[in-house]
Specification:
The complex is a heterodimer of chains A (415) and B (168). Chain A folds into two domains: 81 residues, no CATH class; 231 residues, no CATH class. Chain A is globular and about 70 Å long. The N and C termini of chain A lie far apart (57 Å). Chain A contains twelve helices and 14 strands. The C terminus of chain A is likely disordered. Chain A is of the alpha+beta class and 415 residues long. In chain A, a hairpin with a 3-residue loop joins strand 4 and strand 5. Chain B has 168 residues and is mainly alpha-helical. Chain B is built from three helices and no strands. The longest helix of chain B has 136 residues. The N and C termini of chain B lie far apart (165 Å). The chains are: A alpha+beta (415), B mainly alpha (168). The interface between A and B is large, with 50 and 37 residues.
């Protein structure tokens, strides 16, 4: 009975998201009475505004081309230093660059005024911080700044009072609390609050209730189906890692599916995040490698000498391929889900652009249904990818822990 | 291709934050959540297992106790039956003995009485005989005094006649 209830609540929440998404899209498509108006209203990125403002006639070009959905999608799935709510309203996030020469800086991203201003020699492009690599550029808040990107070389040029300055990310370390960092912090906070409360509940009672009874089967699942089968009797040592990584990925993914602040940060669809998590697994695999694990890599047993020359490089590569596959799988799955949902949103604008507002409205209904379906699927993928990452980490660590020496004696006896 | 490089280039700041957040989470939750939870779950499982085992033990003990109890009860029942039986036997034998004793006593009394009666009767008979004899003699003396003087011959004759008389 409780299960049915929680599934119902989940579906209800999803329905809310879908309605929210539909509402948003309707808001976007509502003012799109003519194709000419559709463009500025539909494009949610500031860069589009920049370019539109920059080139007075660009709006007419884009009217013919239609909305730049690729840019819109990219701005949503990559990292940035603000949460965009609607039209011109954003929630700013703290920027903390450490410049090799200028030292630390701390300011909120609303200092950039959506890319129209520079602050302390930093500018914003695609929602990402860039430093102006020219000491003559004025410090403090500088209004009337335009940032251009060379479409071929990707070089940024900052135009201010008729002068051109180069800008890049090479000269500083960006420790900003970006969308992804914010979402990770939120996920971490949720995890700390939830799981310390669950842990303290075990001190009070051993019969699970409430939050405790929701998470206990999941914790038991990680223990019984991920840790124990792969790690054998040494599983307790790895339980904190496996549980942390499982819930961290899962909760981050769920937060990423929420279309508005404080969600929408694409954490696990960011290669830096998955790469870091994969490195953790990589380190755990190799510091726990037994003699037999390393023996299998550098001197595979039971293989002729000639083949060994072929096998050893492959085995050495496999050390790196395993975490690499972990990194790519998680990143690609989550990113793909976000791209699909954003593409479904994009369909509405394309339909509105091609067939007018009525067609756009019809498309928004169909699109919202598809989005509901995709959100349910992504909710499943969110848990599935957390499970896959955790299981494969456990499998790889388990392989490194395994002592094969007994098996070989048996095999040799057979031959 | 335009955006692929932006997607596939890991950002250093993000790597820093991911590492920091994940390490803090790992150690903090490990210390304050996972280890307490995992230990509590294991303790609870041990407790359940122990409780079940103890319940099993208690159940077998109960069964044993019950069997003992029943055995004792049966023994007590048998004992009681035995005691009752013995008591009955003793009672019966007592009654029988008493009856036998009374019988023999009665028989003895009857026999004594008979003897006594017999003796008394004999004595009486003898008395009667003697009386009859002497009476007869007296009578005969009276009768015969006049007819017979030879007393001795008559006396013998009379005695012989008297002996013929069987009084009982």
């Amino acid at each position: 009975m409780k299960n049915i209830l929680s599934i119902g609540i989940l579906l209800g929440l999803l329905g809310c998201f879908a309605v929210q998404a539909q509402h948003n899209t309707e808001q976007h498509s509502a003012p799109a009475t003519t194709p000419a108006q559709a463009q500025p209203a539909a494009t949610t990125t500031h860069d589009a505004h920049d370019t539109a403002a920059q080139h007075g006639t660009a709006a007419h070009d884009e009217k013919a081309k239609g909305p730049d959905l690729a840019k819109m999608i990219m701005n949503h799935i990559t990292d940035g230093h603000e949460f965009h709510l609607f039209h011109d309203v954003s929630i700013p996030l703290p920027c903390m660059p450490y410049h090799k020469e200028r030292g630390f800086d701390f300011f909120l991203s609303n200092k950039f005024h959506h890319g129209h201003s520079a602050y302390n020699g930093y500018v914003s492009k695609h929602g990402v911080l860039n430093a102006v690599d020219d000491p003559t550029f004025p410090t403090g808040e500088v209004a009337g700044v335009h940032v251009h990107e060379d479409p071929k070389t990707k070089q940024l040029t900052v135009e201010h009072q008729g002068k051109q300055y180069p800008a890049s990310r090479a000269s500083f370390f960006d420790f900003s609390i970006t969308r992804v960092v914010f979402t990770m912090l939120l996920a971490a906070l949720i995890m700390i609050l939830v799981f310390t409360s669950v842990a303290s509940a075990y001190g009070k009672r051993s019969v699970p209730r409430g939050l405790q009874s929701f998470f206990e089967p999941i914790i038991l699942f990680v223990r019984e189906d991920i840790a124990k089968p792969n790690l054998g009797n040494k599983y307790t040592r790895f339980m904190p890692y496996l549980l942390t990584i499982f819930f961290f990925i899962w909760i981050s993914n769920i937060l990423g599916l929420i279309p508005i602040f404080p969600g929408s940060g694409n954490v696990m669809g960011n290669i830096a995040v998955t790469a870091t998590l994969a490195v953790f697994t990589f380190v755990l695999i190799n510091i726990n490698g037994t003699k037999s694990y390393w023996g299998h890599i550098f001197n595979p047993p039971g293989i002729p000498l000639g083949v060994k020359f072929l096998m050893v490089p492959i085995e050495i590569l496999s050390i790196f391929i395993k975490p690499f596959a972990l990194m790519i799988r998680l990143f690609a799955n989550i990113m793909a889900g976000h791209i699909i949902i954003l593409s479904l949103v994009g369909i509405i604008f394309i339909a509105a652009h091609v067939g007018g507002s009525a067609v756009g409205f019809g498309a928004s209904i169909i699109s919202a249904l598809f989005m509901l379906f995709m959100n349910v699927l992504e909710l499943f993928v969110a848990a599935l990818q957390a499970y896959v990452f955790t299981t494969l980490s456990a499998v790889f660590i388990g392989q490194a822990l395994e002592d094969h020496s007994h098996d070989h004696h048996k095999n040799e006896a057979h031959h | 291709m335009l955006f692929l490089s932006a997607l596939l280039t890991p950002d250093l700041g993000l790597i820093f934050w991911t590492t920091l957040i994940f390490l803090v989470l790992w150690f903090f939750l490990g210390k304050f959540a996972w280890n307490p939870i995992v230990n509590a779950l294991r303790d609870r499982e041990d407790k359940i297992e122990n409780s079940l085992r103890q319940a099993d033990i208690a159940r077998t003990e109960m069964a044993n106790l019950k069997a003992d109890h029943e055995r004792l009860l049966n023994e007590a029942k048998e004992e009681r039956a035995k005691i009752i039986k013995e008591a009955k036997e003793i009672g019966d034998s007592l009654v029988n003995d008493a009856r036998e004793k009374a019988k023999t006593e009665a028989a003895k009394i009857v026999a004594d009485a008979k003897n006594e009666i017999h003796n008394q009767k004999m004595a009486a008979i003898i008395d009667v005989k003697n009386l009859i004899g002497s009476t007869a003699i007296d009578l005969a003396k009276q009768v015969i005094k006049r007819e017979l003087n030879d007393t001795a011959a008559h006396q013998r004759y009379i005695a012989a006649e008297i002996d013929k008389i069987k009084l009982n």
